[in-house]
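Worked example 3. Consider a protein that binds magnesium ion.
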Amino acid sequence: MNNASPRPDAATVAGIEQEQFLAILSREEALARFEAALFPRPIALDERLLGEALGSALGADVVAPIDVPPFDRANVDGFAVRSADLAQAGEAHAALLALNDERIACGTLPGLAVSPGTATPISTGGPIPRGADAVIMVEHTEPAGEGIEVRRAAGPGQFISYAGSDMARGETLLRAGTVIGAREVGMLAACGIAVVTVARKPRVAVLSTGDELVQPGAPLPPAGIYDTNGAIVSAAIAENGGEPVFLGAFPDDEAKLEAAMRAALAQHDMLILSGGTSKGAGDVTHRIIARLGKPGIVAHGVALKPGKPLCLAVCDGKPVVILPGFPTSAMFTFHDMIVPVLRRMAGLPPRTDAHVAATVPLRVPSELGRTEFVMVSLVEGREGLVAYPTGKGSGAITSFTQADGFVRIEALADHLPAGTQVEVTLFTPQVHVPDLVIIGSHCTGLDRVLAPLARQGLSLRSLSVGSLGGLAAARRGECDLAPIHLFDDKTRSYNEPFLSPDLELVPGWRRMQGFVYRKGDARFEGLSAQAAVEAALADPACLMVNRNQGAGTRILIDALLAGARPDGYWNQPKSHNAVAAAVSQGRADWGVTIAPVADAAGLGFIALTEEHYDFALVSARRERPAVEAFLSALRSPEVRQALEEAGFRPA
Ligand code: AMP
Ligand code: MG
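Given these inputs, the predicted complex is written out as C-alpha cells:
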C-alpha cells in the first residue's frame, strides 16, 4: 500500500460534515461532555404567584414573615379561664365562675379581660383574652345561674396554641431547591406569602423535523406520519420542570430550518429537535447546529440502543439537542440524557425513579457495545415478578403504554439469558400487578370481552406475543389465559391439538377469513374465492400479498394457490391489518384476511372459511375471581352481541 492522497468519501462529496458522528461516544462520556459544557451556571430566578408555583423549585429560602398563629388561640369551643381559679376543682368540688359579658368568636378581638373568678365564652380559633391562660371545653361545664360550674382542674396553657408555635417569625420555613407541592403551598399561604421566588422554568423550544410529518387532528395524507415526538417531548419537558414551547413540524429544508432554529434559540433557553440526525441525505439539522454557536456539537452518535444518532450541542451557553426520529428512541434518549440537564437548569433535584426486581422469561438479545433499554411489562410469575419485553423495535410506540418500565442492559452484555434477575426502572412510582393477564395472539374481538371487566374495576393486561408465545407463557404460569389461533395440518383442526395437560380450551369466537380486493375491481367482483384466485393467477399484472409462514391464514393461501407462486408471494407481513393496508393502498391487489379487518379497511370480501380464535386457560387459575369474571363476560349476551356486531361469530 502506498500513501496515496486520501480520496474523499461519499459523505464528503455529498457535503455532509460527519466527523463527530463517526466518533461514537459511550453514554457516560457523552453525558459528561454535555454537562461540562453547560455547568456550572447560575440558576435563573423568577417571581411567581403562589397559585402558579406548583411544581417549581424554590429559588431562595423562605423565612416566615409573621408568627403562625399570629396570636394565642383557643383550640376548642368553651371558656377562656384563669387556671388558678380551677386549682381546687374536682368531682367533689365545683368551681363557680361568673361569665364576662362578651363572646369571642373567630375573628373577634376580645374587649374584656378575664379577671379572677370569671370566664369568657370563646369559640375554636378565637383569640385568648387578656388575663386568661387556659381554655376549658364546653362539655366539661354546667350552667349555674348566671355563670358556670366546673368540676375539673385545668393546667396553664390547656387548649391554647401560642403565637408562633406553628411557624415563628424569622424561622426558615423552606429551603431553596424544595419542589413546591400542595403542602408547601399551604405553608406559604399560612404566613401570607402571595408571591414566591422560584427557579425559572427553562423555556424549551420543541421542533419536529421531517417532510412526512402531519400534526394530530389533520387528515393523514398517503405516506404521511403523525408527529408523535412533538407531543411526547413537550409532555416530558413539562414533567421535568421545563416550560415547553412547541413550534410545530418543519420540512427538511435547510434554509427554512436554519431560520426557525435561530429564531427559536434566540427566544428560548434550550432547543430540542427530533429527526434528521442520521446520515440520510435529507438529514440537515446537525449541519445547521454546527453554525449556531460555540462550542457547537459535543456528541453526535452515542452508544445507546435505541438512540444511537442522538446529537448533543451547546450553542453560546444554550443546550441544543437533536433526538432520534423514532418516537421510542426520542423518548429514551430524552429521559436518559436530557432530563438530568433540564432538571439541573430548572433547579430541581435529580429524578428519583422507583425500581423493582424481576426475572426475564426469555433470552433477551442485546447489541454488544451499546447501552440498551428494553421496555418491559410486569406480570406475577410462580417465583416473583416476570418482566416481559414489550418492544416492537424503535419504530413502535405502543410498547410505551403496555410497559411498566424498562431494563437497562449494559454495553458489555450481548444478551440476557432467560431467567436473569434484572432491575426494572418503573415508569410510575408503584407496580400494579394486574388482576387478569392474557398473553398470546391479539384480536380486536378481545377488546369487546375486556371492556365490561374494566368497567367492573378489574385491571387487565393483554400482551400480544403470538399464539405460540402465549402457550409458552401459559405453561410457565405467567398468564391466566393465552388466546390462540393455531391450525394443525395433520388433524385439520384448530387449537385443541396444541394444548398441554395443564391447559384447557375455552372456546372464543370464529373469524371469517376471506379473499380481499379493492371494491370495484372487475377482475374479482361476483366470483367465488377459488374463482377469484384463478382470475388473479390468469392476470400477470396482478399482485398478491401473502402471510408469514406459521400463520393459519398462510395455510389457507397455499391451499388456494395449489403450488403457484404469483408475483407478491414473497411479501409476507405478519398481521391481518398489514394485508388489508397493502391491498387498500394499492401495494397489492389481493390477499386473505379476516372480515372485520376487511370491513374496517373498506375492502371487497369473498368469504372463505372460519378461523377459530380460542383461549388456552391455565387450569390451576380457573378459580381466580378475575378469570371467573372473564369466563362469564365471554358467555354474557352483551359480549356475544358486541362480538357479532364487530363481525365475529361467538363459539
Ligand atoms: P429521521 O431521524 O428523520 O430519519 O427519522 C427516523 C424515523 O422516525 C422515520 O421513520 C420518521 O418518519 C420517524 N419520525 C421522525 N420524526 C418523527 C416524529 N416527530 N413523529 C413520529 N415519527 C417521526
Ligand atoms: Mg426525518
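Take a moment to read the result before moving on. The mean pLDDT is 91. Residues 327-345 form the longest helix (19 residues).
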